[in-house]
C-alpha cells in the first residue's frame, strides 16, 4: 500500500484505492462471515491483488533508490 500514496495520476490513485478497499473489504468480510468465504475470497484476495500489483508494476516508479535498481539490473544481466 505504500506506493498507493505515490500514484503518478489521480486515475491511478483512484484505481489503487479501489483495489485496496476491495482487498481489505474481502478480507474482513470473509473473516467475520464465513458464509461469504467461497464467493468472495478468490475475487478479493487473489484476483484483485494480482490486478493491483500489475497496475503498480506497469505505472509506478520504483521505491528503491536508483543505485539499488542499477545493481539489481547489473546482477540480473550477469546471470544470463
- Count of individual beta strands: 0
Rg estimate, integer Å: 17 Å
What's the end-to-end separation, in Å?
A: 32 Å
The assigned structural class equals mainly alpha
Please tally the helical runs, counting DSSP H or I stretches of 4 or more residues: 3
Main sheet record = none
Anisotropy-based shape = elongated
Overall mean pLDDT stands at 90
Low-confidence region ranges: none
Helix content: over 70%
Strand content: under 5%
Q: What order do the helices and strands follow?
A: HHH
Please supply descriptive tags for the structure shown above.
about 75% helix; mainly alpha; about 80 residues
Short description:
This protein has 80 residues and is an all-alpha fold.
